[in-house]
Design a protein that fits this description.
The structure is a homodimer. Chain A is an alpha+beta fold. The first copy, chain A, contains 6 helices and 16 strands. Chain A folds into 2 domains: about 110 residues, Aminotransferase class 4, branched-chain amino acid transferase, N-terminal domain (D-amino Acid Aminotransferase, Chain A, domain 1, 2-Layer Sandwich), CATH 3.30.470.10; about 160 residues, D-amino Acid Aminotransferase, Chain A, domain 2 (Alpha-Beta Barrel). In chain A, helix 5 crosses helix 6. The radius of gyration of chain A is 19 Å and the shape is globular. Chains A, B: It catalyses: 4-amino-4-deoxychorismate = 4-aminobenzoate + pyruvate + H(+).
């Protein structure tokens, strides 16, 4: 029974059936991207493409380059007006039994298009968050890329649902904060921005990159990527979480700490919103 | 293009198509077992069933209990005479976008039956191994179970193929040895057995459990589960690797260390072989 009737494509054909065996299912042997489509156009397409290619390279999966533009174009034909999520999964495809990749694998591309009901760059209710009990395992060889091994996030998201948290902070084993469950984390301190370095674990998000390279500089803000102890989060002037479908979300509560003013987060969201509006008009 | 024409089943129906979306593909949200079938009967079925259920519990996936017996029975009808591998994958099934498990997911069972050309409990050429450059990330919440997040093993198996190694030792970040890429590890020292404790990472293999609980005791050997530094492997009297489809494989070379006598490994293999033969006659 399918929960969704979202349009899906497998290797460019409309299909909601994955041919078996597939190494994506067998081992999580692949990567994915979740793009925001606005009236059928993908926001920050180049960033998504670069991260996707970097992930494929890290895993040694040969695939078309560029891959996303044609995929987006195909999906755009069926994309509703307004906002949609486009998930693009690239696996190492089929192969014989066993962990070893086949000598000449053929990457498989699986695409799912889902309408979004919310406007990702509107100001929304700040999140109430807490610290996840799930620690992220350190794995520098997979850090940064958006691969398909996401059980840590699944367990943490289940904990959020159980505990009624809007999101959660994920720490590594040494107690440093890495990210939210489904997004990157920024702290505002003394007018500048801090975000966790991602050399040991975590996903280098496209919105994280946009904050660092475009949106913060547009406001004259410096961003430092560094090691951040978990408890430092509660000492920040503002905290926000970002991802492709949530845009920038302010954090309003973390345990006993409450925030009610978000001037920097609001200003960054305005800049991001303008970029999205500009894209829509283009 | 399918590399294999192996029989597959999805939720009990003959099918080599996985309905999308599936959380197994999306996040590696599931577990698997690889069983050895001998003339259609599964070796160590109870151990596989217990590990599978333990994995499902750890991930919070509700599924039939017991699950494997009926699956094996169905596959046995198409199993060739002799040896075959039965891979049983259980995912959290379908669900809406996002990491959070749906409130009432329906587990999906994907089965693949592959003939085996070799006799897993025959004595075979000892393996030449080395140390993998891929370190296993510490993740106690997932340690021991056979979940679908296997990119570390995929990268290490690719390294083995590239370097021409028969297998490789996987260490954790602190330099302790955890396992082989696709199997557990035992050292013989002074007549007893050592095997790495698996509290931080690694898979608790069914053959590992059989060695500890049945095959070593049958020979009057003690087995200690403990922390083992990587270099200690080369100081052992014998080294062997075990998994469901390889049985027990002696290690003949690890870097400059060579072994040529394997009395304990041969004796254990004999015990295991008798168990398999007894099962076939039963």
């Amino acid at each position: 029974m399918a929960v969704t009737a979202d349009p899906c494509w497998v290797d460019g054909e409309r299909s909601s059936q994955l041919p078996l065996p597939d190494r994506g299912l067998a081992f999580g042997d692949g990567v994915f991207e979740t793009l925001l489509l606005v009236n059928g156009a993908a926001m920050l397409l180049a960033y998504h493409e670069e991260r996707l290619q970097s992930g494929l390279e890290r895993l040694g999966i040969a695939a078309t380059r560029p891959l996303l533009a044609a995929t987006v174009e195909q999906a755009a034909g069926e994309s509703p007006a307004g906002y949609a999520a486009l998930r693009v999964t690239v696996t190492r495809g089929t192969g014989p039994r066993g962990y070893a990749p086949p000598p000449a694998p053929s990457a498989r591309v699986i695409v799912q298009l889902s309408p979004l009901q919310h406007d990702p760059y509107a100001w929304r209710e700040p999140l109430a968050i807490d610290y996840s009990s799930v620690r992220l395992g350190r794995q520098p060889q997979l850090a940064g890329i958006k691969h398909l091994n996401r059980l840590e996030q699944v367990l943490a998201a289940a904990e959020c649902a159980r505990e009624g948290w809007g999101e959660a902070l994920m720490l590594d084993e040494s107690g440093r904060v890495v990210s939210a469950v489904a997004g990157n984390l920024f702290l505002v301190r003394g007018g500048d921005l801090l975000t966790p370095a991602l050399d040991g674990c975590g996903v280098a998000g496209t919105r994280r990159r946009a904050v660092i390279e475009r949106w913060a500089p547009a406001l004259g803000l410096a961003v430092e990527e560094c090691a951040i102890d978990g408890e430092v989060v509660q000492q920040a002037d503002e905290v926000f979480i970002c991802n492709s479908l949530q845009g920038l979300r302010a954090v309003g509560v973390c345990r006993k700490r409450r925030w009610s003013d978000f001037p920097v987060t609001r200003a960054l969201l305005d800049v991001a919103r303008q970029e999205m509006d500009g894209m829509v008009q283009a």
